[in-house]
Amino acid sequence: MPSRNPRMAVVIGRLLGLAFLVCFGTGIYSHFLQDPLPWMTFPTRPVGLYQVSQGIHITAGILCFPLLFAKLYIVFPELFQTPPVKSFTHLLERASIALFVASSIVQIVIGLLNTYQWYALFPFPFRQTHYALSFVIIGSLAIHIAVKLDLITKYWRKQTTPTELVDMPVSTSSTDEVADPTIASAPGTLTSSPARNAVIRAEGVTGKLFDWIDATPPAEPRTSRRGFLTIVSIASAAVVALTAGQSFKLFDGVNVFGARKQGIGPNGLPVNRTAAAAKIEDVAMDPDWVLTVANGSSSVAFSRAQLLALPQHTVELPISCVEGWSQMATWKGVRLGDLVDAVGARGGTAIKAVSLEQNSSYAIMHMGPEYVRDDLTLVALELNGDTLDLDHGYPARMIAPGRPGVLQTKWLSSLEVLS
Amino acid sequence: MTAVRRWQIGLVVLGLALLVVGGITLLNDVNPKRYIGIATWFLGALIVHDGIISFVVFGANIVMRKTGGRLRIPLPAILIVQGALVIAAIMTLIVVPAALKKSIGTANPTLLPLDYGLHLLVFYGVLAVVTALALGGYALLRQRRHVTAG
Fold first, then answer.
1. Does B88 touch chain A (CB under 8 A)?
2. Across the interface, do A65 and B93 touch by the CB < 8 Å criterion?
3. With CB atoms 3.0 to 4.6 Å apart as the test, which of A84, A258, A290, A322 could cross-link to A301 if both were Cys?
4. CATH superfamily membership of A267-418
5. CA nearest neighbour of A102 among B73, B46, B65
6. Is the separation of the CB atoms in A257 and A378 below 8 Å?
7. What is the value of ipTM here, to two decimals?
8. Cα–Cα distance measured from residue B40 to residue A105, given in angstroms and rounded to the nearest whole number
């Protein structure tokens, strides 16, 4: 029996659908962390929440490659439906499938290329496009499930018996491994039950070639199906295991294809935006640098020496990039809560942090009270036992639990308490 | 109305609503000048996948079955070799862009820090060894089965 059958489409399809939903959920979470709606507050525990959610986002995205290829291979004969368009509804259905397939491929490819920072290949802004496409894909998925729901329910379980829900001819045979050719000849459609014998077929030359492939050499029972599932499983395990080390320490030992490697970089930590790229080397190294903390009319300027003279706290927090890589690190510095107290802030308060960096969408960062008042949120001065490297935000940077790296503002210039 | 029918209507409504959200997001967040770029990528994805990759896979499948049939190679052996090729191809698709981007140059040395080309070659090597072992294992199993049967 060939692996191109509706049962296999359901088996692989639900895994792929689940991976899409996981990517969508974690992606939306990441989006709103960066662009929160006014009423939103976010959990700060566990501290590795974003590390895990975004690590899963990228890893599940990579897993979509073998799953999507497998799914498209199973339904390949559907491409050769004859006639190509039967009715207006059929045209709509095929157009929606084309949109679904194209947006899915584009989405995972640009996602992967973004982790390589290969922006030059995109004639569009990555983040906005990736965000908009996520709705197109999940919307298309919902419609696709609706259209195929009869088939999905029929083939959800192994060896289901034909039910009343299925409006197609039903074969009574359940033991033959080879589908009855008289039933199996409906072009571009599924053959009838029993479930294990149904095949997704094409007509014409392609269909004949598929028939020939399926019969050459003569199929041994279930070999083809099991072989297909084994191949998909090994490919999936391989792409995940050999890249996930960029996000999860567990896989660091076998991280041979990840876009980042733990421990590589200044202070033993990878860097996303360097001081040179941010063009702040001179201002950041200026001995007269101060961090201005303001609350209405009250304002205090702290030199780095003055910050170092304040009570220092050491925290273990991950740096977790939107690109999915992350690493745990040891940070030492002043509690943000202590600094806003020094300018008379009371109770829960939000702040605006400004970087020395100009012309970056992340040069100004807003932080809600759940982070400002968290004991783990620091204005960090040291990293992994050494002075903060210039590429990691010297003279001072923000580090808070559960936030994406782009919001852990580097090269701080001022903090302003928002009323 | 059956439960399935109700689910179908609900899913279609949800799907259309999400498509509208996606469309509005695109209109609001992306400069219309960029739409042609997005459309090009969509079209390119369909051409590269449906027009090229799937036919290469299809053709390779035919060639392998033909060769396998002529040499009377049993299906599991063909599947083992095909599986190895598929796994190698998927890994190639994911890793080669990393190697290319690294050779073009990255924003800083901590991005794409590994030797992806070399690692890919090692991966092919390991895959080839595992494939050979699997083929050997299958041959042994088959032989034993024949001996038992005979």
1. no
2. yes
3. A290
4. Oxidoreductase, molybdopterin-binding domain (3.90.420.10)
5. B46
6. no
7. 0.95
8. 13
